[in-house]
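To assess whether ligand presence alters the predicted conformation, the chain was also submitted together with adenosine-5'-diphosphate. Input:
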Amino acid sequence: MPSLPILVLNSGSSSIKFSLYEAGNGERVRLLEGAVDGIGTDLGKFWIKDAADKKLVDQTPAVPSRAVAFKLVADALKSGELPAPVAIGHRVVCGGPTVRENQRITPALIDEIESYSALAPLHTPIAVYIMREALRLFPGIPNFAVLDTYFHRTLPEVATRMPIPAEYAAMGVRRYGYHGISYESIIYQLQPNVPEKLIVAHLGNGASISAIRNGQCLDTSMGLTPSGGIISGTRTGDIDPGVLIFILKKIAEGTPNAAEAAEKLETVVSKKSGLLGVSELSNDMRDLREAIEAGNEKARLAVDKFCWTIARWIGSYVAELNGLDMLVFTGGIGENDIRSRAEICAGLGALGIVVDAKRNNVRGTAVISAANSPVTVRVIPPLEDLMIVNHVVRLLGE
Ligand code: ADP
């Protein structure tokens, strides 16, 4: 196979991340990576660095809009100084009930994905914009959608069906699950020794956890939207529905327009809750750890709640899997926050999960379980862009 430069585009609500891989002959070499951060501000950040970490671009431009942000990326990639991509892979968080397979992007597919924006409101609008712009600015190059929900296609109906009236289920209200590209990348890195009974905790700004049997997803904590499941940076996670009704009624007292009240409720659930809501300080684990050191009790409660929720979820997944061979931590907190890993696992000895304090004192790839721990506990960083490249190479060959 000839060498194939493949561009990966991965956008968030205020940033566009990208990387360029050389793929061919089974090899995957990352040539460069970059990002535009601070979309919507006068002082954005635009950087590109090569495989040796050398900065090729390092600027602080005004980035008033996503249009300006993506033009910076497209201009750099089309300047002729960097290898021209032969295909582009886009991370797509949710394709709703009908877009379930990774596939080539057409204008009709983008419209279909856009129609499900409500399922991932922080991610889909910018991804849709970038897919349209990529088709326009890179004419003739195939673009592919790689879905975060794809990994969860094996969920049994008992996990996907929500206990709601059938008319809403028929509208696509069900568990989709997210962070799927990260989970796939963990399985990929464990090959060929993928354990039969595996739990992976992806703990980043958004946090989720999955029970995986023989490499296939059996259950996952996020549901219809990425706000479900475990508490995360600014999101509630699963919550007594009565709480939402109570808050909605309170909001409605000052906001009689139902659509506006629903928007406000969405902001409470996905942007003002979680670690931020409980700590009243920050959604960022580093800030919370610093505050705890300084004796801040609300920060302590927020982090305790985070670790407690995850420990309970691990317990229920051990029951679902009927045992456990391996627990993997990944994501920014999973990889770097030594104390969260220790606190989550502290009370799980009866499940065979025993973390060794010395081994746990690391950031990045490691085995952190004690030598006599029945369950192996590992830290593995996700390789989401690499997984997207793998999907694109496969789809190019089809
Ligand atoms: P995203 O979901 O946006 O991709 P990340 O996976 O980058 O997020 O995770 C971000 C989280 O990781 C933040 O809460 C951040 O505080 C935490 N984090 C990153 N580095 C560290 C560190 N050295 N110690 C503790 N927490 C960290």
